[in-house]
Every structure is written in C-alpha cells, then in structure tokens.
Specification:
Blueprint: H1 9-22, H2 27-34, H3 37-50, E1 56-58, E2 65-67, H4 77-84, H5 104-107, H6 112-128, H7 136-154, H8 160-167, H9 171-195, H10 201-221, H11 225-251, H12 259-267, H13 269-311, H14 326-330, H15 335-354, H16 356-362, H17 369-390, H18 395-415, H19 420-434, H20 437-449, H21 453-481, H22 487-504
Antiparallel strand pairs: 1-2
Helix pairs in contact: 1-4, 1-6, 3-6, 7-11, 7-12, 7-13, 8-9, 9-11, 9-21, 10-11, 10-13, 11-12, 11-21, 12-17, 12-20, 13-17, 15-20, 15-21, 15-22, 17-19, 18-19, 18-20, 18-22, 20-21
C-alpha cells in the first residue's frame, strides 16, 4: 500500500483528541462504537497512523476486529499517536488478525477530507458512549505501591529500640536506616529511570516492587548492621524507580481531562502511610517482633506484584528517537519554577513534620502527638479529595489557594504557641492545604514534560527527597540555635516564596484555565 499522505496539524489534533476520548473505556463501549462503520474506519486509520497492528478483540455483535489497545481495552493511543504522527506509515494487519472489514487494509487511503470526516464520526461515536469512569482498581494498585514505599521508609522510626537490640547498635545508628533508604531513592531516581526509558512499563514496575520484596526480606533475616544498611539503601533505590514510574504510568490509563483526579487517587496512599505506617508498625512490632514487620511488608509486596500483573495493562517504553537528554528535560519551559516550588513547599512541610513533637510540646500539647498526627492525616486525605475534584479545571488557582492556605495554617500554628485550640485548628488547616500538594506538583510536572514525564517525575522525586532531608537538617539547626517556636514563621516565609514563584510561572509551569486547553 502506498504511504498515506500526512494530514494537517488540525486533523492531527482532532485525531489525537478522539483517541484520547476513547482511551481506557471498557469493552462494552468499544462494542457500542465498533458496530459503527465510520468508527471501524477510524480505528483502521488509527492503526495505519500508529504504524503497527493493535491487539485484536473480537466484537460478538459483528465478528469484526477492533483496534482495542492492550487486552480488552483501548490503551495509550494518545501518547503513541504523538510519537508516530510525524512519520506515518502503512502496515498490513498481523496474520492472526481479521481486518475490520473485508477490504479496508487493501483499499484504505487517507486524504484531508476523509480523515476529517472519519475523525468527526469518531468524535460523535465516543461522545455518545457517555462519560468515562476512572479505572479505580488499576489506580489503586499505584496507591498501594506508594503506601508500600513510604511504609517501608518510615517503619523503622517506630521500631528503633527493638531493631537496636536485634542488631546490637544504638538507636541513633538505627535511625540511619531511614537516611540510607532516602539516599538510595535520591541517587537512583533520575539515572535509573533514564536508563530504563525504553523498557516496557509493567515489567519494570514489577521488578521495582520485587526489589522491595527482596530487600525487606534481607532486612528481616539480617543480623548484621552493615548488611541491613546496604539492604535499606538498595530498597530505597527500588523505591526511586517506583516513584519515577507511578505518575507517567497512571496518566496513560486515563484521558487528559481525568489525569488530575487519577493522580489524586494514586496520591492518597502517601498520607495514609505517613499517618498510620509508624504507629501500625510499632503495634505489629510488639506482636510479631521487628523482623516480623519486615516479613509482613515483603508479603504485601508479593500481593502487590500479583495485583499489578492481573489488572494493569502493559505499555511500551519511550522510543529512542523521541528521548530528550536529561538536561534538556530539566530545561523544558516551566520545569525549573515547578521544581523550585517543590523544594520550597516540601522543605517547609518537613521542617515542622520532622520536629512536630518539640513544637507540640512548646504549644502545651506534648502528650497528644499521635492524635495530632492523626488529625493531620485526616485533613490531608480530605485535601487530596478536594484537589482531585478541582485540579483538572484550575491547576494554577488550586495551587495558589493551597499555598495561601498553607501560609494561613502557619500563622495559626504561630498563634497556637499561646493557644492550644489555635494549634489544633492550625494542624487541621496544615493537613487540608498540604494533602493535595503532591498531586498539584506532579500534575504540573506532567503538563510541562509531556512525553518525558517519567524523567521529569524522577527529577521531582530527587528534589522532593532532598527537601525531606533538608527539612530534617534545617529544622534541627533551628531547634538547636533557637527553639521550636520559630518553625511556624519559617513555614510562613517559605510558603509565601513558593506562592510568588507560582504567580510568576503563569506562561509555563502553572498555567491558568482548564488543563489541555492552552
């Protein structure tokens, strides 16, 4: 077949929009549109445009075959299309595939008018299919991965005496197990994600979770502190890969207008882990011992691997011809201001979160640390829900409001040094306004990076973890040099600086209006 003519940018955009509109729909929706001849023609056009046959799903009502992505759904057409749209080529159907209709692949030609007409028919067909539902079961697999990663990181904090006795080291050295884990994530995120850009997504994610399984098992078995420290560092490296993959993988499951909501679902595992991970680990440690806790985490990793294999579709890695150098990704318009906001916001949060005990003691709530952390976590979960509902429609506005609310929370926490009720309200506001921060920042990074989202997200992981470590360092210095009463005012300054960066990043980074319309 002759190579089809390249359509105009308008036609490309319409085709891309139509493909995204059907991305992720269940097979019953595919059947509904698959009985429409125009939609079948559109699917054939999509295959020719992608330059590859797609997985075939037999449609019971027609016996025809439809371009159904992977498994029983349409997956990833939008991102695949953008990779291939500059070099269209024709391809015969795979030998085991039945053509959509008898002669489409032998006679189909592309012209401007026919492509436009077929995309219009596809638009109508997908609109009639109704609004899509989030693939919640799939997204919850990512939620569980985030929960597992953070629980693995933080659980030693609640087991310090038990691990110290088991390894015959001081609690201070046990605390370095958390530091080693975070260091592994920082070191691995960018280079490992960059090196594996061409690897298929599901096997890579399963391999990273397998790393958590293996290295947590080694921690459970080890009686040597150096071996345990090494296992924790390698577990952190595996986590760096997990964090680098989650956002880009999740975004390929949903159309653009649902990506913010999807990231909110993915992100809810983080505050749950931060709120419940340490106390739950402490409780389990008293029941099954600290080694038993790490065996339980390894068991959860095994369950998650099976879950991922059962429900998540596989996607190809990024083609070599489309990969930007790491420095070029960092230099993309909007990336630098976004990463600066990540640094300022996460640093501010972790100064207080790391040293919440001395702050609460100064506020007269020293005996209520667990209760205040629970209040913070509950507020954070509500904040994620609110962010997910609004982020796709108003990313810039929600980010500015969240940072303003975070600054207001800092003021309340400052007043709370002299009023326990004000401190409690401040903690609630802190959770409400910070809970959605990862979703907002991940969405902004994804928008700025486009096809290079995985590399960009790994950069965010690196900056995020550096800010976490910086929060511990800066907070400790402030605590030694002054006292915990200075924390709220430092948070106020950092949050205002973050808000100023967002205000200046209007053209790129934090753009106004609905996502995907500018």
């Amino acid at each position: 077949m002759p190579n089809p003519a390249k359509p105009s940018q308008v036609s490309q955009d319409r085709l891309r929009a139509a493909l995204k509109a059907i991305d992720g729909n269940d097979i019953d929706v595919v059947v509904q549109v698959g009985t429409n001849v125009a939609m079948q023609q559109f699917a054939a056009e999509a295959e020719l445009w992608l330059g590859r046959p797609c997985c075939r799903t037999t449609l019971p009502s027609t016996g025809a075959r439809c371009a159904a992505g992977i498994g029983d759904r349409i997956h990833g057409f939008g991102s695949l299309l953008s990779k291939h749209c500059s070099a269209p080529r024709s391809i015969a159907p795979a030998s085991e595939a039945t053509p959509l209709t008898g002669t489409f692949f032998s006679t189909l030609t592309r012209t401007e008018s026919s492509l436009t007409a077929k995309v219009s028919a596809a638009d109508s067909a997908t609109i009639s299919a109704g609004p899509q539902r989030l693939p919640v079961l799939k997204l919850l697999a990512f939620t569980a991965a985030g929960f597992l990663a953070i629980t693995t990181e933080t659980v030693p904090a609640g087991l310090l005496p038990r691990i110290g006795q088991g390894l015959d080291v001081s609690e201070g050295l046990v605390g370095q197990l958390v530091t080693s884990y975070a260091l592994g994530a920082v070191i691995a995120a960018v280079p490992v994600i960059a090196a594996t850009r061409g690897v298929r997504r599901r096997p890579l994610l399963m391999s990273a979770i397998s790393g958590l399984l293996v290295f947590n098992a080694v921690t459970a078995l080890s009686s040597s502190y150096p071996l345990t420290l090494t296992a924790r560092f390698l577990a952190g490296m595996a986590t760096g890969v997990v964090w680098g993959l989650l956002v880009g993988y999740a975004l390929r499951l949903v159309p653009e207008q649902q990506q913010g909501r999807a990231l909110a679902v993915v992100g809810v595992g983080q505050p749950i882990a931060l709120t419940l991970g340490v106390p739950l680990g402490t409780l389990l440690g008293s029941l099954v011992g600290w080694r038993g806790v790490f065996w339980i985490i390894s068991g959860l990793a095994l369950v998650l691997i099976a879950w991922i294999r059962a429900v998540l579709p596989d996607f190809p890695g990024q083609e070599a011809s489309t990969r930007r150098p790491i420095a070029s990704v960092a230099a993309l318009p909007g990336m630098r201001p976004i990463l600066l906001v990540v640094l300022l916001w996460i640093l501010a949060h972790n100064i207080l979160y790391t040293y919440i005990s001395p702050y609460l003691a100064a506020a007269g709530l020293g005996g209520r640390v667990d209760a205040m952390l629970f209040v913070f976590g509950a507020g954070a979960i509500i904040g994620i829900w609110g962010t997910g509902a609004l982020v796709d429609r108003a990313l810039r506005t929600v980010t500015l409001v969240s940072l303003a609310g975070f600054a207001a929370a800092a003021l309340l926490l400052g007043v709370g040094l002299h009023s326990a009720p004000a401190a409690v309200i401040g903690v609630v506001c802190w959770g409400l306004t910070f809970g959605g921060a990862p979703t907002l920042l991940q969405t902004a990074v994804a928008d700025a990076a486009g096809e290079d989202a995985d590399i960009a997200q790994s950069m965010m992981v690196t900056v995020f973890n550096l800010a976490v470590a910086g929060g511990g360092l800066v907070g400790g210095l402030l605590l030694e040099a002054i006292d915990a009463t200075v924390f709220p005012w430092v948070l106020l300054v950092l949050s205002m600086a973050g808000g100023a960066v967002v205000l200046t990043a209007r053209a790129n980074g934090f753009r106004p209006g609905m996502r995907g319309t500018s």
